[in-house]
Amino acid sequence: MKTQEEENRKRRQEALQRLLRDERKKVVVDIEKQIGRDLDTGITPKLDSALDEGDWSTLDLGDSVDYTILEMRYKTFKDIDEAFGRLEAGTYGVCENCSVEIPLARLKVEPFARYCVPCLSKMEMYKKATL
Is 94 helix (H, G, I), strand (E, B) or coil? Predict the structure, then answer.
């Protein structure tokens, strides 16, 4: 017979797993949209007209921004994948610094969070102080 604490832990794990799955779906859709947009607006239509240096610079800047966005989304995807690994290991949702459960509200905002807000704040203050 399961205790209330075990039942609560199981419900929390299921909720966290749903959070990660939902976030992963969003990221995959964003990546697919970005890649699809890049493929749809490839260089071929841009070459239909004569381009000067300014036009090329604008195209290069746009491509650079697109690539940066894609990199950010891929990093988020990897963070979510790592969070799934922690979920399987039973450490997901637990602060890696103080071992306290990260509040569900924080995980809803950032499902792949590794630290609770107090620990993250301390780490950021330390980082600023050492710069």
Answer: strand
Q: How many domains does the chain have?
A: 1
Report CA torsion sign: 10, 18, 21, 99.
negative
Tell me the CATH number at 121: 1.20.120.910
Q: Who's near 5: CB < 8 A, 6+ residues apart? A: none
* Four-point Cα dihedral 17, 20, 22, 24, nearest 10: -140
Residue closest to 105 by CA, chosen among 21, 25, 15: 15
List the domain range (segments joined by +) for residue 24: 4-130
Whole-model pTM over 0.90: no
With 0-12 CB in 10 A as exposed, 13-18 as middle and 19+ as buried, what is 113?
Answer: buried
Taking CA atoms, 109 is separated from 4, 57, 105, 112, 113, in Å, by 27, 37, 7, 9, 9
- Residue linked to tokens 């890649």: 35
pLDDT digits (tens, 9 = 90+) for 18-29: 999 999 999 988
